[in-house]
Write a structure and sequence with these properties.
single chain, mainly alpha, 62% helix, two-stranded antiparallel ribbon, 3% strand
Length: 238
């Protein structure tokens, strides 16, 4: 299967033009990797259009101050859009650069306005590049939904209000994210009994310590819940 990509150098130049408000012919810079028939890109345009409308509605809602909530609400659509694609495509940063600039530039810019307004590539490229999957807006949304989903239920993507730091610091950027059951248990715990920042950080440190000796990725839902209960009880007793 052939799939669309943007090179890193080209993407960097295009972002600068987009920041300046220019409208470059993005499709002209797209190249195709792989062999065989071309990937159908129509679902990407359709999903982008649907999420644009969803963002307009979100901006008129009472939740508009919680930008991470919209990221959570939109994550399932990104995951469903890409479900079934070969791993080689999902693992290619060039593919994420293509999605980020050709179809979802508006979303990345909305999500991190100050980074793009800074005009500093060191601040904004991470959100569209795809090299760091936990930073790029589109790839982290995909990961968020992939981690949260269980039997078609994506409700945990929005379980934690004002959850940007929680997702970043306690799931996506750390070893916990490699264990979806543990991540889901942590999300349930935070949504039901929200931990103050210092307590959440202490629990995160405990999980990282344990992960150096235990393969947390093999934990199921029950094991993960039991582990969190044990750690919280230990933390409360010290």
């Amino acid at each position: 299967m052939r799939y669309p990509v943007l090179s890193r150098a080209v993407a960097a130049e295009l972002v600068q033009e987009l920041i300046r408000g220019e409208q470059p012919e993005l499709d002209a810079f797209v190249t195709w990797e792989g062999s065989g028939p071309k990937l159908n890109i129509e679902p990407f345009a359709n999903t982008a259009a649907s999420l644009r409308d969803a963002l307009k509605n979100f901006e008129m809602s009472d939740a508009k101050a919680d930008a991470d909530m919209f990221e959570g609400q939109a994550s399932p659509a990104i995951h469903e859009m890409l479900t079934g694609l070969p791993l080689a495509i999902i693992d290619d940063p060039g593919f994420w650069r293509y999605l980020s600039l050709v179809h979802f530039w508006w979303l990345a810019q909305w999500r991190h306005p100050s980074a793009f307004e800074s005009n500093d590539p060191a601040l904004y490229l991470r959100y569209v590049d795809g090299v760091l999957t936990t930073e790029c807006v589109l790839s982290r949304m995909y990961l968020r939904a992939q981690i949260a989903e269980i039997d078609g239920d994506y409700s945990l993507t929005t379980a934690v209000a004002q959850g940007s730091d929680f997702w970043r610091s306690h799931i996506l950027r750390v070893s916990t994210g490699a264990s979806p059951p543990l991540s889901r248990a942590l999300l349930r715990e935070q949504s039901e009994r929200r931990m103050p920042t210092d307590q959440a950080r202490a629990l995160g440190r405990d999980l990282n310590r344990i992960s150096s000796n235990v393969v947390l990725s093999i934990y199921d839902e029950e094991d993960a819940a039991a582990l969190l209960t044990e750690l919280r009880e230990q933390g409360q007793s010290t």
